[in-house]
Fold:
Amino acid sequence: MAQDPNAVGSAPSGKRRFSKRASEGDSPKRNNRDIARLIVFGLGLIFLIAFIIANSASVRVRFVVFDTRASLVWVIVVSALLGVLVDRLAIMLRKRRASKPKSEPT
Structure:
């Protein structure tokens, strides 16, 4: 009896091999998923470009000791990044405090 080397579960090493028919059934779902991702990415890119264009005006930024001018989009991006940084630091500190053993009162 000869075995088909492409049949499911017939690989001598114990690894399962899948026929082309099994993988062809998944391709329409995978293609639809890829197309949806490309559409979402394209829309996100369009919105990002529109955001940059709409917020490209130069604004005055006042710090405690000096003033400067910057593009509004950069002010928004830097503020968002600083917010993420502060959030991550707060989470790290909270985890560190929670992991310290509490000393017993005497």
Remarks:
- The CA atoms of residues 60 and 69 lie 4 Å apart.
- Residues 58-100 form one domain.
- The chain has two helices and two strands.
- The chain has a mean pLDDT of 79.
